[in-house]
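Problem statement: downstream parser choked on a complex file, so we are re-checking the raw output for the pyridoxal-5'-phosphate run. The parser issue turned out to be on our end (a line-ending mismatch), but while we're here, posting the original submission so the record is complete.
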Amino acid sequence: MTVGSVSARRSTFLPFSTPTIGEEEIREVVDTLRSRWITTGPKAKRFESEFATYLQAPGALALSSCTAALHTALKTLGIGPGDEVITTPMTFTATVNVIEHVGARPVLADVEPDTLNIDAGEVEAAITPRTRAILPVHYAGHPVDLDALRALARVYRLAIIEDAAHALPARYKGQLIGGGGNPVAFSFYAIKNLTTAEGGMLTADPEFLAQARVVSLHGMSRDAWKRYDQGGGWFYEVVLPGFKYNMTDIQAALGLCQLRKLEQFQRRRREIVSQYNRAFLDEPALELPVTRPEVEHAWHLYALRLRLEALTISRDRFIEELAERNIGTSVHFIPIHLHPYYRDRYGFTPASFPVACSNYQRLLSLPLNPALTDQDVSDVIEGVLDVLRNHRV
Ligand SMILES: *Cc1c(COP(=O)(O)O)cnc(C)c1O
């Protein structure tokens, strides 16, 4: 270990991310536990309606995860065996797994070199008569080129299901992601921009959501959560073999508090991003994240790219050097085509998606969340600059 050359080390380890939970959340959860409803009930309803209002979305369905929301959306669209869904290799595996879950074939399209979002040109090249939908991911919180994807969807009559796990809140040409009528899936996992520990939301137009609600709860034909309340009847009918994807009121209690804090959380994220950008701007070995003029970035991730030709160490070693300085980082993402299941099933090689693959080798995500103190942020900056001082060519 090159510990001798470490001149900037925090006294305690800074984790890559931690949730920001306050007394309000704790009080609201306790209030739920003391009430008659602990699973899906009035708070889940209120969270849906406040979330939809916040995004100016036509409707919202609270679910157990973003994975559940994506799965529900695909199933509700009737996508299944024989169908193809085009998505990105630069994502978490859930995005692609759900396509397999409905029995369809995931078709990957490489990403743009600047945003690392799915490239509309590559999407068009991947369209076949079996293509039913495009499943883009707003990588790191930077919206995809929606106009280009919408044009393809119109011409080839495809659905667009957005994975907005990183994109709360983000805007494309002034409109909030999730504000349109197509299905958009959000994640409230522990370290997402808003958390309910585990949870997700599907926004879409009300007719789609009415069907999605049935799909997401056992295929029961009526609002099943009401059946134990006064005035609720015992009778229901199963119209399809649905899932068990409902959000509990304990989760919704967290979500209601977090939604009220979201603007303040985002202000803090933007401040931290400005500090990182200022500190790293003149570093030839670093490539900073881009923001196109037509978008507002949700800054879920600060994904830094190393210019490996300007360094004497690899990205993996860079991460170890930061860990030796007590700075936790992560990598988003190991491209889908490199994972054994997808590699072997579809015969991919690393070169199948060269932009995703070459960027993966030089990517790392720095800590970015509202719980970071000014000291934490300056420790991250000092840690990165110290590694660079020791390992520039
Ligand atoms: C976190 C994440 C998901 C999965 O979210 P869950 O709520 O954990 O199911 C899906 N897609 C992307 C891009 C993610 O980062």
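For whoever reads this later: The chain has two domains: 23-259, 261-391.
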